[in-house]
Amino acid sequence: MIRSFFRTFRFMLSHPIGRRQPFKTLTRWLRWQTGSRLLGWPVAAPFISSTRLLLRTGMRGATMNLYVGLWEFEDMAFLMHLLRPGDRFIDIGANVGTYTVLAAGVRQAHVIAIEPVPDTYQALLDNIHLNRLGGKVVAHNVGLAAREGKLPFSVSEGPTNHVLTTAENSVPAACIPVKRLDDLAADYAPTAVKIDVEGFEQEVIRGGQSVLSSKSLMAMIVELNQLGARYGIDNHTTDAMLRNFGFSTVKYDPFRRHLEMVALPNSSGNTLYIRPSEEMQLRLRTSPPLDVYGIRI
Fold it and tell me: How far is CA 291 from CA 70, 206, 279, 296, in A?
């Protein structure tokens, strides 16, 4: 508990918004920690622009957005600067829908949101309904894999729920249908894709060859956090698969709207993949600014 407490504080005060507003950030954290426990029910908290997130005590990832505005700052800002109204975005491992709400609610894109765990999927639907995004978002309560079938998923680990291995036979689980990305999003022609599947990336990629080959696809946000080891795979193999589709790895500075080519980071978080183009550069430079707690990016 104490270790988690200090980890949260270090994250907030090193975050680009948190370090610019340390007192306000800590005040937001304290207000949520006390208020949510006193109320004891979900709270519709302001998010970016006119959107909101339905938050409950214990939503470790989603509540970070309340403290610092954009939890995954560089990646979320990149997506907001890239997308235009009418674009298409696929949110794989949507969790409670923070990326879905940003894409559909702030940038007016169309979204396919995929979340396998039933309770988390319901929270995703709550945020879609709260923001009146039913006309822009199609949600699927399935997992993704290289072939259709059923797989055991953990159900009690919040944002880190995942496909279980045979060694994890004591973890609370549910047998959940899985489909191929190509079967769910045939001819969808996305502008961007996010993959957050806790190490199961290669299976998703194998089932999404057509989607990931789409000429419309400019960028991917992929969580490469060494968890593929539980399935006997490593980041470099997954990275090679993605580069075969013509992607390069970059870092993004939202304040300067600048992309920097990098080697595959030894990362515990997301990796940003792009297909470099003049159109992408133009989109990033000319995107309307975002207001994140009074800071314009």
Answer: 11, 38, 24, 5
Q: Is the pTM of this model over 0.85?
A: yes
Closest by CA to 113, choosing from 95, 135, 131, is 95
Model confidence at 266, pLDDT cuts 50, 70, 90, reads low
> Which stretches of 38-159 are assigned E, i.e. beta strand?
43-46, 52-55, 88-92, 110-114, 137-140, 143-144, 149-154
Query: Domain 72-287: which topology?
Result: Rossmann fold (3.40.50)
Tokens of 72: 């995954």
Angle (CA) 93 165 178, round 5°: 40
Evaluate whether 105 touches 130 at the Cβ level (below 8 Å): no
Spans of all domains in the chain: 1-70, 72-287
Amino acid found at 170: S
List C-alpha distances in Å: 74 to 15, 182, 251: 10, 28, 8
